[in-house]
């Protein structure tokens, strides 16, 4: 097993490529997203996306907040060779909504919001509250993991050679349309 | 952003190694043996240790109260005292003046000045209250998953060190590569391909 720090330094692009692929997939094929997630879910990019491009020792960063209209700037950055470094994802599982920010570098999840759970009024309710919340968090993280594993399997397979031109076409067409 | 807050931040790990049987007893021993020590009134600048989930100022792990079905829930607590440099300078100047007056000398040596600052710092540390930071931890022993409810580097570093000291086990951060390597269920051939993967361009 590769040391985690070495892995982070040697493969810093993996997480960013994953988030970029995921953005492409959510924009082009909702069924493929559900298939990659392994269950009937809707995943869309929410109100925040950050893209980065490494230029020598410098990092060019484009941070976009807002609705879909502002995402055009992100597509232009993609066309210039940037990758998604952090994204806000909105996940719908049945009638439950989740949202989370995912950082590509280390797959840390922040601002993870789950369907609301009841307040803990007395100590005896603590155990139930922990279980309920842990279950909801697990559900959201499992979706993210399934998407990531689907990406990894695709990325190391021959099928990636077919997928990559499709992503490049999406990037160039989407950016050219703006 | 703790476990029960409306918005959670989570850094995920895989636990490497096994606790001695019975594992629940071993976990309780690790937690109580490295429970946070109070440093109020002490000259210690900081303390790191475990505390009970939901009652961070009462680190009680008796009766395996940290076990919640398949999860072990507890918290990492870091207490830190901060003494402003300007305060140290003020008290050090005052103490140095008193030393000089008592001895009738004009100057203190470099070593004496160092001693004065150390003495002042120790005195101030005893009087300054420690500011606690609490980070929830969930550990599923069966699946070897551990979640730290923080993305702060200092918390992650403290967790790795304290976890190893407490349980003799290691935490592997689930970065993209390590997650793919350890949890994606790849075959040996796929793992080889993963190791050889190189960055690609998404633009034409």
Shape of chain B: elongated
| Structural class by helix and strand composition of chain B | alpha+beta
Termini separation of chain A: 45 Å
Q: What structural category arises from helix and sheet content of chain A?
A: alpha+beta
Strand content of chain B is 15-25%
Total strands of chain A:
5
Overall average pLDDT of chain B: 92
Please trace the helix and strand order of chain B, writing H or E for each element.
Answer: EHEEEHHEEHEHH
Structure description:
By secondary structure, chain A is of the alpha+beta class. Chain A has one domain. Helices cover 49% and strands 26% of the residues of chain A. Chain A has a 5-stranded antiparallel sheet with strand order 2-1-3-4-5. In chain A, helix 4 (72-79) crosses helix 6. Chain A is globular and about 55 Å long. The mean pLDDT of chain A is 88. Chain B is an alpha+beta fold and 204 residues long. Chain B folds into 3 domains: 11-82 and 128-173, no CATH class; 85-120; 175-204, no CATH class. Chain B contains 6 helices and 7 strands; from the N terminus they run E-H-E-E-E-H-H-E-E-H-E-H-H. In chain B, strands 1, 2, 3, 4, 5, 6 and 7 form a 7-stranded antiparallel sheet that branches. In chain B, helix 2 packs across helix 3. The mean pLDDT of chain B is 92. At the A-B interface, helix 1, helix 2, strand 5, helix 5 and helix 6 of A face strand 1, helix 5 and helix 6 of B. Strand 5 of chain A pairs antiparallel with strand 1 (8-16) of chain B.
């Amino acid at each position: 097993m590769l040391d985690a720090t070495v892995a982070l330094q040697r493969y810093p692009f993996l997480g960013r490529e994953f988030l970029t692929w995921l953005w492409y997939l959510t924009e082009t094929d909702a069924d493929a997203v559900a298939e990659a997630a392994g269950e009937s879910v809707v995943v869309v990019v929410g109100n925040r996306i950050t893209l980065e491009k490494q230029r020598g020792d410098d990092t060019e960063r484009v941070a976009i907040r807002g609705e879909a209209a502002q995402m055009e700037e992100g597509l232009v950055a993609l066309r210039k060779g940037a990758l998604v470094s952090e994204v806000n994802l909105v996940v719908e599982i049945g009638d439950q909504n989740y949202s989370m920010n995912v950082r590509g570098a280390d797959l840390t999840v922040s601002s993870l919001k789950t369907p609301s759970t009841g307040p803990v009024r007395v100590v005896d309710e603590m155990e139930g509250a922990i279980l309920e919340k842990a279950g909801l968090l697990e559900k959201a993280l499992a979706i993210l993991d399934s998407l990531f594993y689907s990406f990894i399997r695709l990325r190391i397979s021959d099928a990636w050679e077919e997928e990559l031109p499709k992503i490049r076409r999406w990037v160039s067409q989407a950016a050219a349309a703006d | 952003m703790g476990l029960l807050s409306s918005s959670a931040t989570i850094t995920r790990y895989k636990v490497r190694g096994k606790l001695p049987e019975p594992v629940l007893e071993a976990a309780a021993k690790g937690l109580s043996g490295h429970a946070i020590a109070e440093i109020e009134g002490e000259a210690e600048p900081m303390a790191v240790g475990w505390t009970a989930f939901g009652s961070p100022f009462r680190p009680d792990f008796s009766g395996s109260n940290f076990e919640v079905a398949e999860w072990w829930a507890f918290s990492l607590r870091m207490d830190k005292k901060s003494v402003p440099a300007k305060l140290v300078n003020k008290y050090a100047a005052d103490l140095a003046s008193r030393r000089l007056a008592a001895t009738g000398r004009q100057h203190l040596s470099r070593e004496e000045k160092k001693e004065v600052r150390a003495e002042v710092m120790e005195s101030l540390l005893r009087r300054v209250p420690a500011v606690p930071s609490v980070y929830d931890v969930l550990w599923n022993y069966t699946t070897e998953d551990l979640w730290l409810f923080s993305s702060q580097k200092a918390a992650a570093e403290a967790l790795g060190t304290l976890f190893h000291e407490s349980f003799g086990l290691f935490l592997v951060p689930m970065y993209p590569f390590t997650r793919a390597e350890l949890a994606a269920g790849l075959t040996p051939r796929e793992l080889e391909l993963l190791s050889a993967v190189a960055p690609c361009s998404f633009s034409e």
